Amino acid sequence: VLPETDADPALRAADEVAAAAEPQIRSLQALLQERLVQSRRLEGVLRTSTANEIKALQAQVDAVFLKVTELKVDTFARRTMRQMAEAVVAVQKAEAEVRRISEVSAPLSQDNLESSAAGSFREVTRQVQLLEEAGKAACQQAEGAIAKHKTDRKDQESPSFHNQLSKLGARLASAEVQLAGLGRAAREAEENRGRLQARKGELAKLEEQVGELELLTLPLGDERPCDEAETSTFSKLWAVQQALQTWLADAEALQDNPHGALKLAMGRLLASGRLLRGSLEEVKATTGARRECALCR
């Protein structure tokens, strides 16, 4: 936020530029439209080329007019923001604290969960936790600064004031969500290594079971397995399907995690799980009639 001695002249200069440019642009737009209408009196190629040149000029002028409009909107927004300078500074401070924590926790976003040694995340966790309290305090201070302005009459009477205050609130909310995620990632990083290994072990077991089912359900020749064997096989298929669905749901929940390393590793594991689901669906498709008969006995 600029000091008042710098901000006032800058805002006045922006107003003056927009005020001087707007009538000139409107006049030029009117002139070009008039020339475009006149060009219709021309004939053949000359008419087309002249109209195209005028339209190209119109597009350039319209682009300049858009920039002037954006300048006016931006200047008005900045003038409104000056009325809540304390809240702006507080939100900027909160965002800066969260950026500091994000920089410290960068190792947790690397694709290193499977290759890292046990205990390797403890130092990052310690550093994040040292900064986390300052981040929370900055967010709380920003919340208080915004809350004070919500009781201001301008918030009810001025749409622009309300809009800018809402934007500040959204920025703070985003910073708070990021802060919570960084803290959670730091706290859970070491345990996530074990969680990943557990999911890998479960998937390996499911892969073995699906492989067994693929063998048990190979197309039959003249032989016919007993009813008990068929019922057992397809009951197992149903059980494996349920177990795989549960595994996929758990894996998707783990992937939706602020710990970047876990998210990356679980993404790969989920891809394998979905391929396995496809294999199981093929078994079901090729044994449809046999399965229905067996499960209806």
Q: Write down how many β-strands occur, each being a DSSP E stretch of 2 or more residues.
A: 0
Query: Helix count, per DSSP?
Result: 9
Radius of gyration: 33 Å
Write down the overall geometry: flat
Quote the distance from N terminus to C terminus.
Answer: 77 Å
Coiled coil: 172-216
Keywords: Coiled coil
Region (Disordered): 142-162
List the helices and strands and how they pair.
Blueprint: H1 4-39, H2 44-82, H3 85-104, H4 122-150, H5 153-157, H6 159-216, H7 227-255, H8 260-286, H9 288-296
Helix pairs in contact: 1-2, 2-6, 3-4, 3-6, 4-6, 6-7, 6-8, 7-8, 7-9
Which features would summarize this protein structure in a list?
mainly alpha; 297 residues; 9 helices
Task: Characterize the structure shown.
There is one protein chain. The protein is mainly alpha-helical. Among the domains are: 1-82; 189-296. The protein has nine helices and no strands. The protein is flat. The relative contact order is 0.08. Residues 142-162 are annotated as: Disordered.
Summarize the structure.
The chain has 297 residues and is mainly alpha-helical.
